[in-house]
Amino acid sequence: MKFPEGFLWGGATAANQYEGGWNEGGKGWSVSDCAKAHFDTDVTNFSAHNEITSEEIQYAMEHPEDMVNYPKRHGSDFYHHYKEDIALMAEMGFKVFRMSIAWSRIYLNGDDLEPNEEGLQFYDNVFDECKKYGIEPLVTMSHYEPPLNLVLKYNCWYNRKTIDFFCKFVETICTRYKDKVKYWLTFNEVDSMIRHPYTTGGLIRDRFKDKNFEEVIFQSMHHQFVASALATKICHEIIPGSQVGCMLTKLTYYPYSCRPEDVLEMQQKMRSIYCYSDTQVFGEYPAYLLARFKNHGLNIVMEEKDLEIMKKYPVDFISFSYYMSSCVAKNTEGLDTTEGNTVTAIKNPYLPSSEWGWQIDPIGLRISLVDLYDRYRKPLFIVENGLGAKEELVPDGKGSYTVNDDYHIDYYKAHFKAMYDAIHEDGVELLGYTSWACIDLVSESTKQMSKRYGFVYVDADDYGKGTYNRYKKKSFYWYKHVIETNGECL
Ligand code: BGP
């Protein structure tokens, strides 16, 4: 069972959860630096964690010393551990490393005239380190980290001006890293504005009291679509041969029963994902999304040139995260529900779940790969997939510590098999795979460290306390072997 030659095996991270160094190297505040962990609420209630009020932001800014509640500011301290971490990735044989550039490390306030040289130098160092080991960087331009100033001063993505600020940032990083980075993603989980208006869009709900918030979100989305198309253009112009992808939260939906009403419900639900990729791959709004704007009375302001830009600069490939599948039904009364990284969904009686209720479904990954490839016929890239778990270090018998994470190995094994089947049986063109997260980092939904995904354990707790030492888990050696044999050992 060998994967195609040149298959890009690797791992994924994002600055807002991994980098730390939040107030070092001249970095400005980003939305994530104010995103508070919720220690006392139900951590499976995803939606509750992604709202923020103006008062909460104010508090976070006035109390920068209050670190306990903001573990994202520390991340895994990649800022000081990048050499060690990249060496660990190299030891596993990574071909690719997905990371993001913190916009507020380059343009501290988002609207500055000049970039921050120290920030630019940091990523130069990171990319040089990757190069040393022959690891290809895959860079997300924006992963839940717009500069806070853009939020406070302009309402971030709701404002057209943010398109220009973003393009300036993109031009700066493409110019600077043109010889170092070939693979780029524009917006992480571009569909996520609807679920996390603040972290993704920089939208604070209480500022839009007199507006239809759905309209605010889609207006902001429209600006991101235009920005994404322009970023693709800029990247292609500055870096010939570069590849730019969109990034979706992909999950597979099943109808709970074969009742036509449930199947229709499933189809509608799938469109809530496809509307984002349809727009970025075909370069135009799909009819069903335009119909939704009309039927919901949403007046989305689009300039004429916006649609031309979107049409002219579609993405080169489609990347996505995949963690789980869900069921949908027209009538949900009396059915068990489960939480996920998108919305509350109907529990599938045939599937096991993670400790956070995310339903584990490797076949669903194959279904997603096939659906996407059949729909778009463009190369695919799985840029997030993994299992969050609570873990403890145990002695490894050699004077150090480890985690015996067989559950990660089982999870990956089943998902790799599904990928292999999609490639070989279904003819899907899959460029590569980056697990989330290759090294433990702070969870997006819980804003805590204790939801661990990595092949490498990071000694830090939910309060940002610890040595930040790295320990190889059992899965580290297992993944290394998978990469070494290009999947043949599976
Ligand atoms: C995706 C995000 C990531 C990551 C992942 C796991 O939605 O792109 O940033 O966090 O989900 O989610 P969580 O950290 O909530 O377990």
UniProtKB/TrEMBL annotation:
Keywords: Glycosidase, Hydrolase
Active site: 384
SUPFAM superfamilies membership: (Trans)glycosidases
Source domain of life: Bacteria
Pfam families: Glyco_hydro_1 (PF00232)
PANTHER family linked: 6-PHOSPHO-BETA-GLUCOSIDASE ASCB-RELATED (PTHR10353:SF122), GLYCOSYL HYDROLASE (PTHR10353)
Family label: Belongs to the glycosyl hydrolase 1 family.
Protein name: Family 1 glycosylhydrolase
Organism: Holdemanella hominis
